[in-house]
Predict the structure of Glycosyltransferase family 61 protein.
Amino acid sequence: MQRFMLKFLYVVATFKYPGIRRDLRYFIRDNYFSRLNQIRFVTKDYIARKKYKVIDFHGEFDQELRYVLPFAYWHHLNGTLKQTISCTNTRDFYFFSEHHTEQYEKRVWQAGYEYYDVPNMTHSPTFDFSKWTRVPFKKRYQNEVFVFDKPMLMIANKYNIEWDKPPINFLDIPALNRIVSTYKTKYQIVYNRPLSTQIVLDNSEIMDLNEHQWLRENHPEVILMHDLFEQHKNMVNNFNHLQLMVYANCNRFISMHGGTAALASYFGGMNIILSHPGGGMEHHFNEYATIFPALSGAQILHAKNTDDVFRYLSEYY
């Protein structure tokens, strides 16, 4: 039955979106099926409303942030969330879950395929927000600890394998130098690029950009998240907890394609996302204008190259 429905929904996607590439219609098909799958839970979700829903996910971080967490939070508010299961150091993301288990030590990107338990499970030109609610990270984690003399500018960089290719979406040292030199008088710049020991990895191998020592030597006024973690180890639960606390006090972000961009989009304000064309599916489905701003109401500025980053900085920051 499932195979028949998937074939039928692919035909529906073909007729509804004839201009979209054939391979991309599979994403639309899967989202259609995941939404239809919710029909099974109408009685439990809207009539019985007892705690029954167990949400178990260890796929890509980006997918968890965009689809799984808002779905879990909806069930929490609905009174139907029983348990959440995810990866190591995710308890603070699921602060609202009474029973959260950190079961997995590694993310497996294949685990996101055929994960039809949530009404939005992959890329799509449209999203169903009927069981999707913003998770109030900013309200939850705002604090008086990470407050500085100047407004904060968070540079959330990354440097890792993307789609089995060398790094594509990242800021190199010359770009970092230009940003810091230009904006350090206006903002307290905080730099974040987590190490492999600080987050749960998936298939994207983290590589060394050698920028941390360079920043310490050439721009000591920049605050490194690594240093904040060492300074506040006794106060925070883990590196993810630190990210939530620092990000909650920030309204200006520069972030990179993927989970880095999704997390930075959870805290309102403005978020410049560097995402080169030709890689992720966000471009094909215009998701920087749909699901990303929906995460918190943040203004998303999609930079397709480094020049766009500087153009947005000049215009908005």
Observations:
- The CA atoms of residues 40 and 147 lie 47 Å apart.
